[in-house]
Amino acid sequence: MNVLVTGGAGFIGSHVVDALVHNGHEVRVLDNLSTGKKEHLNPRAKFYQCDIVDLESIRPAFTDVACVFHTAALARIQPSIENPRPAHDANATGTLNVLLAARDAGVRRVIYSASSSAYGTQLSLPCHEDMPANPQNPYAIQKFIGELYCRNFSELYGLETISLRYFNVYGPRQDATGAYATVVGIFLRQRLAEQPMTVVADGAEKRRDYTYVGDIVEGNILAMRSDTVGKGEVINLGCGKNYSVVEVAELIGGSYTYIPKRLGEALETLADNTKAATLLGWAPHTPFAEGVAKLKKEAGLI
């Protein structure tokens, strides 16, 4: 099968590409390399260097493609608060362009990398897909808009879509520097540099559901194969257990210091993954402590 992965040189996208290549698919990668890296490109995939913000430039990559995995994004909260416009262009307009290109090329299915940030703060946990969205920052709003576009394209044009809401993905190739770094990546970098880990001031209360990238990849592959989805469904991909930022630092090991708390972020996330189990047959396989241990070993910390 011909498949396309937008953002296929990025953290999650490159892992999806590797799995698809391993499974024998003809894979194309579309990436502008703004946050993706050339060293993450699978040499067996055909590479298109272009930007999803430019609709006409991306159209050739969609020709004769059966399934698109849309992982391209500017995927962090704080940069979207500091400068909402480029994040909107990539996350909202870019997703619309991917859907338009897919529709016009006759693509059968688009699998969208959505975000648990769409839930925002909820009155009860765990978060399930029937809860009303409550996005609290520009990134969350933009990713939620992408979900609405996906559902709308299924309803209006018959394009099969699935939105997978990821809960705090971590693993090999995660960003460790710059504005788009993840907390696990930052802490590992700080430990390697023999610096104290920087924990936000509410880090004892701020809890996240961390999901290993390999489990996220499996969810994407199952979404491609499933004949029970494709009508714009929103499906959580999360472990169903959460950890405080302080607990993350303690799992990695070493000293830590506190920095000011950040605006626009939910205090706690926790996934109900019942729908993923029912519709996709998906379940997480990597406990957080095991995943962190893998990364510590890879980094030479154990």
UniProtKB/TrEMBL annotation:
Pfam families associated with the record: Epimerase
Domain NAD-dependent epimerase/dehydratase: 3-238
Residues making up the signal peptide according to the UniProt record: none
SUPFAM superfamilies assigned: NAD(P)-binding Rossmann-fold domains (SSF51735)
Name of this chain's protein: NAD-dependent epimerase/dehydratase domain-containing protein
Lineage: Bacteria, Candidatus Ryaniibacteriota
